[in-house]
Amino acid sequence: MALDSAAIRAEFPCLHQSVNGRPLVYLDNAATAQKPRAVLDASRRYYEEINANIHRGTHHLARAATSAHEAARETIARYLNATDPAEVIFTSGTTDGINLVASVIGLGGILAPGDEVLISTLEHHSNIVPWQMLCERTGAMLKVIPCHEDGSLDQEAFRTLLTDRTKIAAFTWISNAFGTVNPVREMIAAAKSAGALVLIDAAQAAPHLTIDVQALGADFVALSGHKAYAPTGIGLLWGKRAVLDALPPWRGGGEMIKEVTFAKTTYNELPFKYEAGTPNIEGAIALAAAFEFMESVGLEVIGEHETKLIRRAAEGLSALSGVRLYGPDDRAGALSFGIEGVHHYDLGTLIDQMGVAVRTGHHCCQPLMARFGITGTTRASFAVYNTEAEVDALVTAVDKALSMLR
Ligand code: PMP
Fold first, then answer.
1. Which of 27, 170, 258, 361 has the smallest C-beta neighbourhood within 10 Å, fewest atoms?
2. What are the residue numbers of the active site?
3. Average pLDDT, whole number, for the chain?
4. Which catalytic reaction applies to this protein (predicted)?
């Protein structure tokens, strides 16, 4: 089914503006996506109609806010095909979720000196640094799956790196820098059969793919709302109930307790065990609205539309002289490129003058950039509301900028 671009775009108020006298062409969606009215309305309605702190209030508004928050958790659990809403822990985003897991694995005494944590060359700093910090604390070793020249992971090396010392494997589903889509189902199965716990960074998968946590078979899936049409400051960590139940609590405070005395505290059940303090109530409600928005358009329709755009962009850009595209041909979400003799920052600044918003730099993937011997790339990234005309505007703008820079 084709997408009704005009109708979709009408739902996104922020798209309708001029930048530097040109209509905005927003192609920085891998950094954060614009928000549809359904999400903005959910946020506003929460504050206008039912704002109150949740869970312990007896008054009307507190009960209404609590119901809306927990209904959002149920909607999200259904969206992710989780068996139990208690497996959905609200976080502030992917970074927060990964830090939660790395921290409780450390506190749980799962890693001994010489054990291994396996990540990949494609990872965002958020899926590198928490594991490095954990390794420093525990004496475990960080191992890294290498990638091929086309930006796909070396699956043979991955199988060799998996040993009985691999206690946790954490890798991204889609690379934010190159758009590489990893074969996560197979990778998860291999890591599970080696006895490792597995975390999937779904920050870039969430806006583009159906996430079925049962079919995936990982232990943890972390994502951010803001890349998937929800507000900033909300995300989630899905974790298998048996695994989360066996892990210790993390941050201490209100909500995560059953009973507190000065002598001893007992802890709450999931999901509250990992939700200390007043949560982002409006964010959770808006995240559910964002998932419902994507469902209403259809994840397959979104995926097909974006693939068409990304192929058109790849074709158009690779026809320009000196352009190198990074990542394999079947990339999703993002298209990264470099241009001989042109700094990505200069290019990004010039095309912004023409109304085209892209991201330039290392994309929080410095080790990946180092692997390719570059300091950064220019990255165009796509969402449901982008159009073929916008792809053409990108290619024209890059072409024009090149004639100015060379
Ligand atoms: N992982 C990936 C693959 C990402 O693209 C990002 C955001 N660029 C993150 C993790 C971190 O997400 P956040 O900043 O929303 O926590």
1. 258
2. 364
3. 97
4. (sulfur carrier)-H + L-cysteine = (sulfur carrier)-SH + L-alanine
**Closest-lying ligand 1 atom to the alpha carbon of residue 201:** 1
**Nearest-CA neighbor of 220 among 68, 74, 31, 91?**
91
**Given the CA of residue 172, which atom of ligand 1 is nearest to it?**
3
Beta bridge partner(s), residue 168:
117, 197
pLDDT tens-digit series, residues 12-41: 999 999 999 999 999 999 999 999 999 999
| 102 neighbors 126 (Cβ within 8 angstroms) | no
Q: Report the topology of domain 5-27+298-405.
A: Aspartate Aminotransferase, domain 1 (3.90.1150)
How many other CB atoms are there within 10 angstroms of residue 114's CB atom?
Answer: 10
Written as six digits, the tokens of 107 are 């506190």
380 half-sphere exposure, CB direction, 13 A CA radius:
31
C-alpha–C-alpha distance, residues 27 and 312, integer Å: 14
Look at the pTM and tell me if it is higher than 0.90: yes
Q: How far apart are CA 45 and CA 403, in angstroms?
A: 49
Return d(Cα 158, Cα 176) in angstroms, integer: 20
